[in-house]
Amino acid sequence: MQEEAHSRSERKRWAQARTCGQAWAWLPLMVSGRAIGICVVGYERPHAFTLQERTTLTSLGALIAQALDRARQYDAAQQPAEGLQARLLPRTLPRVPGLQVAARYLPAGHGVDVGGDFYDLIRLSGTETAAVIGDVQGHDVSAAGLMGQVRTAVHAYAVECATPGEVLARINRLLLDLDPGLLTSCLYAHIDIFRHRAYLATAGRCPPLLRPRGRSPHVLDLPPGPLLGVDPAADYPSTEVTLSPGTLLAVYTGGLVETPGEDRDTNITELASVLSDATGPLDGIADALLDHAQASGDRTDDTALLLLIVEARPAVGSAP
To answer: Which pLDDT tens digit goes with each residue over 17-32?
Structure first.
């Protein structure tokens, strides 16, 4: 029944085409001996097709068919990968009293496959939470799959109340055991909202930006640890940072500041300038940072961005 209705619809379109012109060229779009469509070229006046025109139109039909088939194959391959990554990233972030949060994910430029950037917020207690952001090397299903494994491992180790350095060290050993052949960078921050403190450790990650209330943002100078999955004896030192009420902490992956042919440190300085001028709701600030990244050049890497603002201290009764 459905095929019959489709056939009637096709005949109706062809009849309409005949009333709009005086000559037509019907080009079957064939790939590997099967028809995937038809292209109709119409002329307003009667037209006698020469041999050269017939050859040109036949070649045109073959080129259109190949392009259409490649586009369909690309979509068929891309959709499962994008669906996998969408399921691996958090759909929503937990609500934490005393903490405002905004997160963004920006795919790389057109033509680049799915990547392994990720972010997360893990509620540890009534006044403590863990913020994590990272990047798995590559742009394919393998990178997205490993990203899911790393994110799951972070959750498991975080709830055991391990320090940031211990969390990264354990993930490092896990990746060495898995031997995925992909490098991973990560920044882990344990935030104590009640005491206005954050403890951060990094594995080859871009330096965070810190903007205290009423002051200009600055780059946090964290001792960098090696990328995860490289050195079994790697050490990831933790750094304590004061987070007074109104302080904004910005953590991000390389896609936000890394552009081929440009200096990364210069781009980080420019990003800090944008953050200094950005006002209003946290979601608007996140959008302003992404808009700056998109305007400054084509990105060859994905971007993950996580912004946090510490609010007034929660009630004393909510402290652990």
So the answer is: 555 568 888 888 888 8
